[in-house]
Amino acid sequence: MNTQVLDQARNAYRTGDFAAAAQLFAAAKDPSELAGEADHLRGNSLMRLGRYADAVEAYDAALRDDAYGKRGALLTNQGKALMSSGDVRSAVSAFSAATQDASYATPYKAYLGLGDALKKLGNLTEAGVAYRQAAIDGTNPAPAGALASLGDCFVGLQRPEDAIESYRTALDFAGPRDDSRAISAGLGQAYVAANRFTDAVDAFNNATADGIYQLTADQRDAFERAKDTLSASSSMVASTGSYTTGVDPLDPLGQSGNFMPDPSDTGFFTLSEQEMVQQDRAETKVRRKHRHTGLKVFIVILIVLLIAGGGAAFAYTRGFGIPSQQDVLSKLFQAATDGADTDEYLASGLDESQKAVISASIPLDATATIEGMDAGMSETTATVNVTLKQGGEMTYEVGFVREGLGWAVSSISTDFDVETSAE
């Protein structure tokens, strides 16, 4: 390994010069040499350049370096590259393999990719299972997107009531990066499919209230149908959740002769409708617990703290620290730009290779701003917007761990759009 060329490649990667980075990472190693880090970052650079087939090859080379590890992240990135290159079936295999890596810190990313690939192949049942796994994964800081996609699957499977619950839960968990308008539009479609036309009109109005979101053709048709039905007949069942007499809600055309799909046949659920509702509620509580937003947990903690008079302890449990996450992040980026030692801002439990990868991921002369944060007592996951020197922007997911009263960075990964992202 040519360490001098490798350092040049890292610098090019950090400054956003991905064309140079891709060439330098390739030049830094002998063709027969195993170098997981170099091939991993080469693959990321090629993804940014839209060279998806070459990125697949780079990730494959990185996967051959058993000493490097990171199979989950590499396979997830490879799956995204395969999706972007049009090889959806191979992408399914890559994403599926990524979910089997027990050491993968963020498996929800693999489940999201798997859901997208299966959905593109028309396999809505298995896609729904994948989205459900992504939504309940405790490492997922923003489950709303997965829940909305699960709702899409339910609509496609002609299970509108289940779709309604998925969309409504997605709205409950929607954060700054989620498009609540699109989720409301999906909810409107589900309400129409369930013959709940008043609720549908309300949902569509919420989606279009600010004049920004544009309904799809199917959504416009559903919206018009809801409005026309309400205008034409006051006897039509609207917001009660009931269905027109004699119509099977899962087979409105009456062609199947039974419920479709039958939960016992699809493998999607093996529960009764009542049990599904109960389980959905239970899993919602689990998701909230993982995201440190469970109301009961908050109340219990608050009562204990009030009894103890521990105002400082309360702040500690809510993620406050000295230095704060933003302070540590800003100083880390500045140290990387200045060429100074970054160890004091990184988690003490990281080894040297992990620290090197984090340092190599930091663009020079860039400004990092935390946009969203899932803060806990000992760990925090933050969504970070990074403004590059050249004026572009990138989104990172940064992990922090508690060290003393303050925080230290434990991980940094790029968080691009699904079609072009790489970790």
UniProtKB/TrEMBL annotation:
It holds the Pfam family TPR_16. It comes from the Bacteria. Signal peptide: none annotated. This is Tetratricopeptide repeat protein. The chain crosses the membrane at residues 297-316. Keywords: Membrane, Transmembrane, Transmembrane helix. InterPro entries: TPR-like_helical_dom_sf (IPR011990), TPR_rpt (IPR019734).
